[in-house]
Batch of 2 targets.
Target 1
Amino acid sequence: MAANYNNSAWFYDRLSKMIYGKALVHSQVCLLQFIPPESRILIAGGGTGWILEEIANIQPSGLTITYIEVAPKMMELSKKRNAGNNEVLFINDVVENVPLPDDFDVVITPFLFDNFTEGNFQKIFAHIHNGLKPGGIWLNTDFRLTGKWWQKVLLRSMFLFFRTLCGIEANKLPDIWNTFERYGCREIEKAPFFGDFILSVVYKKQIRN
Ligand SMILES: C[S@@+](CC[C@H](N)C(=O)[O-])C[C@H]1O[C@@H](n2cnc3c(N)ncnc32)[C@H](O)[C@@H]1O
């Protein structure tokens, strides 16, 4: 069953700022400078869509963005965002159901993969990976456990909260970071946030697999 973030759409951004301050925003904004001009971009799981405004602050025109978000209420908020003169195609569906072209220059997956069990994560990862052209840029931000006790507590509380309220299927993190490595994606740049708990990475997809 797909996660339904509808119930949290109206307070999601405020809640995340209460818990993480600006870390969730900074961890995504720091990656946006790696978007080449004129790129065709896929954003999967964009939430309330504030990232569209941050992208437009850096590149106000020339980008073609496919924005896929499953929760209708998140989508409603996203459509009200000022994306500058960038072209945005909004698709209200789960990303795994959307046939993707195989030539996106950039894909962005911000806190998307932590929603899934390992099996679904692997399928969705493969689907998005197919959509990115060889040599394309993948901007991923998500949680990771680096051995600190409070990370486990916070993660467990988040899973419990979003499972109860939004029906997310996950109760632990899938193997996100090793999977990029297994697919041969090359790390170009990375930055930790919130005491290592959040990692932002710029990957480049292998030219040949
Ligand atoms: C944890 S929230 C992160 C939102 C946003 N990226 C942010 O950082 O503020 C995950 C988002 O992914 C969406 N989502 C979950 N599963 C999805 C799927 N299979 N396809 C597309 N969107 C999905 C949810 O509706 C939710 O808005």
Note: The two ends are 31 Å apart (CA to CA).
Target 2
Amino acid sequence: MKLMHTTEVRALVELQARDRAVDDLAGKIASVPEEIGGINRAFEEKKDSMNAAKETLVRLQVEKKSKELAIAEKDEEIRKHQRDLNMVKENNAFKALLSEIETAKKAKDDIETEILGLMDDVDKAGIEDKKLQQEVKKLEEEKNRRVKELEAAKINFEAALEAARAARAEAAAKISEAVLEKYEFIRAQRKGLAIAHIKEDKTGHISCGGCNMGLTAQKIVDVKTHDALVFCDNCQRMIYLDKTVYG
Ligand SMILES: [Zn+2]
């Protein structure tokens, strides 16, 4: 495979561009479900934090309610002791009841202080709950809109991919089977770049456009030969001079 017509080089360069278009579209199509998955996960996370905030609010409300019941119990206890005060005759029993009433009143005060703190907590939790509910609603709308957009884009990409594959087949048909096989092999080995043009910088240094390694003097002579198929010694890619192909 020493000879390669310049028309074939041109066809290979075109084929490579078509292959890239196909890969690019296939990549875009593959990324759609990933992106939708990410959007759904972010939404579920937000919903989890909304549910956690709701749980906190309910827990605090239940706690406040139970403290209020405890207050009612203390009131009842105080009333009962006060009724008993009228019935006891002994001084010691009377004193003991007064002491019980004091203890109950003190306990009631403590619970009332706790309730005040809880009322603050319930207010804050209520604000957080409302805020997260609004955020979830907004995020759900955004999610639905974005998913719809992505699904529509995917349909367009799929149509474009079909067209790109047809164009790719058309380009491949212009190339001999042996060269095409070589191209496919190198492309698979070299991350999609099978054929690279040769670069020449201002100082006259000539290098492979695929791996940037300088070419040997013999290689430079080879690539200037008309219709010769040349490979880079370093990366094994097919290399060509723009001016010999397009010049
Ligand atoms: Zn190279």
Note: Residues 208, 210-211, 213, 232, 234-235, 237 surround zinc ion (CB under 6 Å).
